[in-house]
Design brief:
The complex is a heterodimer of chains A (about 150) and B (about 120). Chain A has about 150 residues and is of the alpha+beta class. In chain A, about 40% of the residues lie in helices and about 30% in strands. Chain A contains 4 helices and 6 strands. A 6-stranded antiparallel sheet of chain A has the order 1-2-3-4-6-5, covered by helices on one side. The longest helix of chain A is centred in the middle third of the chain and has 21 residues, at about 50-70. Chain A is globular. The longest helix of chain B has 16 residues, at about 65-80. Chain B is globular, with a radius of gyration of 13 Å. Classes of the chains: A alpha+beta (about 150), B alpha/beta (about 120).
């Protein structure tokens, strides 16, 4: 199974292009999801620790979609990375209802731990669910840019 | 594909001093591979082992599912008055344990030899 990142559009070099990957919804594909996230994090200029944190948060989000969500009719999940000046975003989109996930009591502990890890590794976690459509987006702010944001928000 | 340093997933068993089994893991531990670790640990516990060592020295990535597997077997072993020791050098996996706040749940040692030395006495 080929899982190549396809640029959606060219940007002006730095911070790198947006990209998307239609990933087969199978846990064996998680390594491809991590490679996709890590390549974007490297292009964005994150250091080794920041890359690992971004990759781990992305992996948790995709694992959650594989385990509890539902793929599109092509059997895949839609992954996207979107770099901007101050942050790198990663989203995973599926056709499941996020609320349904609570029906698996055995998984609540692991799922809770996954969401906790995401929140510790990145700066933003956004979960949007409407009907049978869920998008989980994470974002990590570029070090240095965080201070500006904090000052602006204060 | 996953960058330099990524090795294929694998599990192997070694017996350390005093018949303490060490499960040596290589590669990435995630939703896909963690069940193999769980099954191996469950089997060892069912065979009667009360002290286990999990050697993560060759693991480059660990996710919440794998952490859950370790915490679950720690609970199983403690219920049997047993012990779980984890060998994990400084690196990304150790930082993940710290960030997740589980670095104080396990007994963590730099090497499996250190883990065995202390587990014997526990």
């Amino acid at each position: 199974m080929t899982a190549e990142a396809k640029p959606v559009r060219d940007s002006f070099g730095d911070p790198g292009p947006e990209a998307e990957l239609w990933l087969v919804s199978d846990s064996a594909q998680l390594t491809h999801a991590r490679a996709f996230a890590d390549a974007a994090a490297e292009r964005f200029g994150f250091d080794e620790d920041e890359r690992y944190q971004f990759k781990l948060a992305a992996s948790e989000a995709v694992a959650n979609a594989i385990e509890h969500g539902a793929p599109f009719s092509n059997g895949r999940l839609r992954l996207r990375v979107r770099p901007s000046v101050d942050r790198l975003s990663f989203s995973v989109e599926d056709r499941g209802s996020f609320e349904d996930h609570g029906r698996y009591p055995d998984s609540i502990t692991d799922r809770g731990r996954g969401l906790m890890l995401i929140s510790l590794m990145v700066d933003e976690l956004d979960i949007r669910s409407a009907g049978d459509h869920t998008v989980v987006t994470i974002a990590k702010i570029r070090p240095g840019a965080a201070t500006d944001t904090d000052v602006a928000a204060a | 594909m996953t960058g330099a340093g990524t090795v294929p997933f694998g599990l192997s068993l070694r017996e350390l001093e005093h018949e303490i089994p060490a499960v040596c893991v290589a590669g990435e531990l995630d939703l896909h591979t963690a069940p193999d670790l769980r099954d191996t640990m469950v089997r060892l516990i069912e065979e009667g082992h009360r002290r286990l060592i999990v050697d993560l020295s060759a693991v480059g990535f660990i996710d919440s599912t794998a952490i859950g597997v370790l915490l679950g077997r720690l609970k199983d072993l403690e219920a049997r008055d047993g012990a779980l020791a984890v060998a994990c050098p400084e690196g990304a996996v150790m930082r993940t344990f710290r960030t997740a706040g589980v670095d104080r749940s396990f007994r963590i040692y730099a090497t499996s030899a250190d883990a065995a030395a202390d587990t014997v006495g526990s």
